[in-house]
Amino acid sequence: MVVAEDQWAVRSGLVMILESVADIEVVAEAADGQEAVEHALRLRPDVVLMDVRMPRKDGITATRELAGTGVDVLVLTTFDVDEYVFGALRAGAAGFLLKDVEADGLIAAVRTVARGEGVIAPAVTRSLIGEFAATRPSARSVAEDDAFAVLTSREREVLVCVGQGLSNSQIARRLLITETTTKTHVSRILAKLDLRSRVQAAILAQERGLR
């Protein structure tokens, strides 16, 4: 993975925590968003841990540039929710953590994103839902209603589980299907709802009160 953080002391601490476990390797460090993008495109890590406010290129712009490259971005921020974090959501970030996260929580979040799943710090979730609902145009809501109508019953069940924050393995156990099948359903849901990430799907499911 790549760690992007402009404060050397903070970055060093994050790297030390992440490299304390055998299954995570930090292949590069970046002091700004430009370096983060360059390292990510060259090394193709599974995850970039991305600070938001950095010189030269901020974390949101960097996240947007990495969309569609197969590199997932886990945003790390000091702020509960502001225009930067919401911008990261729209850019397709796979997860959001606050910088006060404990070491075990950080490691678990990186592993989760590396598996292709999403993660949102509990303190961030409610505000993100409010921002997501407030800024989407009404036309998009109509389009979502049409898309919900074409979801299969199983896809709708999976979307409900995603909205509850369940992992693929948890969804598989609950619905008595395989993890591979779960991943396929999630991919189809994102395509049908024109969403860029699992996090967006989770927020949408919560916003719409899917049960």
UniProtKB/TrEMBL annotation:
Leader peptide range in chain numbering: none
Domain HTH luxR-type: 144-209
Keywords from the named record: DNA-binding, Phosphoprotein, Transcription, Transcription regulation
GO terms of molecular function: DNA binding
4-aspartylphosphate modification, residue list: D51
Pfam families tied to this protein: GerE (PF00196), Response_reg (PF00072)
GO annotation terms (biological process): phosphorelay signal transduction system; regulation of DNA-templated transcription
The keyword Phosphoprotein appears for this protein: yes
Transcription keyword on record: yes
Domain Response regulatory: 1-114
PANTHER family linked to this entry: TRANSCRIPTIONAL REGULATORY PROTEIN NARL-RELATED (PTHR43214:SF24), TWO-COMPONENT RESPONSE REGULATOR (PTHR43214)
Protein name, per record: DNA-binding response regulator
Source organism of this protein record: Nocardiopsis ansamitocini
Lineage, uppermost ranks: Bacteria, Bacillati, Actinomycetota, Actinomycetes, Streptosporangiales
